[in-house]
From TrEMBL:
Pfam families tied to this protein: Aminotran_1_2
Assigned protein family: Belongs to the class-II pyridoxal-phosphate-dependent aminotransferase family.
PANTHER family the record matches: CLASS II AMINOTRANSFERASE/8-AMINO-7-OXONONANOATE SYNTHASE
The protein's required cofactors: pyridoxal 5'-phosphate
Protein name: Aminotransferase class I/II-fold pyridoxal phosphate-dependent enzyme
Native organism: Cyclobacterium jeungdonense
Amino acid sequence: MDIFEKLNTNLGPLGKHSEISEGYFTFPKLEGEIAPRMKFKGKEVLTWSLNNYLGLANHPEVRKADEEAARRWGAAYPMGARIMSGSTDLHEKLEDELAEFVDKEKAYLLNYGYQGIMSVIDSLIDRKDVIVYDGECHACIIDALRMHMGKRFVFPHNDMESLDKQLKRAERLTKESGGGILVITEGVFGMTGDMGNLKEIVQYKEKYQFRLLVDDAHGFGTMGKLGKGSGEEQGVQEQVDLYFSTFAKSMASIGAFIAGDAKVIHYLKYNMRSQIFAKALPLIMVEGGLKRLEILKSRPELRENLWKIVHALQDGLKEKGFSIGTTNSPVTPVVLNGTVGEAATLSKDLRENYNIFCSVVIYPVVPKGMIILRLIPTAVHTLEDVKETITAFEAIKGKLISGFYKNTELATSFGE
């Protein structure tokens, strides 16, 4: 069979709906300044789908820093990979400030979050080593594990009894192979909003020998008294061996970093293929990152306002009888029951008739029969935004329960 023929006959679980979903449910185009209210299909909508936690995307100081950096350096500087010709004092300055902020000896900049953590894992692990990971880890971690030629064991989400069993299996194998064990989890899980059980995981270091890698993309800047992340929130930042975060959330930018012991970061600098063979992060992003980090550290009122909105939204939803799962972070999943077709119709109703734009998560991301409306509160949302959203959600929940969405033309076109 021609490999392209295979692609044409099987577009995948999301692609199979592309004819009716693209441009609206998939690849929608939000227009205008990044803000709680933007334009969708020419109409203003209240959006809860942007990971702009601290509202830095359009912060005037950030915009000014980005503009000045663009004028000073252009989009190209520096040319070349860091290891060859693309390193600068400003790259190292941002790395040093990030390391100090998250209480680690050293940090290293990565061009992208997804690509970056894949390269970190790939560089650390060989076929003798065993990876033990939480079953709800992000796709970037799962894709890294697919490249791993050794053993990997999964434990159900935050199931510490299962973690103990998998560590015991891993220990037996590594005693034979001479390898080591890497445990991987997330600080805040982006779909459910609950934190990884870091405090409990590190206690297993008394029983087993392993290193812990934490992806804290949603926790950096939002969790902990100072915004240092989930390790600070749970009081175990010192026992997190490798701390990773992207700039795509609280920093409202592009890039990422990995932080840990100086010797480990030195090794990664010389062995991460995604960085060795890729152009360095442009100085526009680096200077912008320095300004964003400065504001993140010096303006606690942004985080305080974020949590004011989080508490108002989550408490309000629970008071109205909505299930938001076990979230203990800003990520707010509203869990409903219904088909893929009902989810599509419900989403369209929210956008067209209630002017609410949020992410709708369906099968295969969640089990069949489940719908998750994922809301991302930010520091620039208002209490009025919260009130308007809860009112709209009450209306669509009643319609869903009554079967209003079940037999519409749009619902039946999606099937199951």
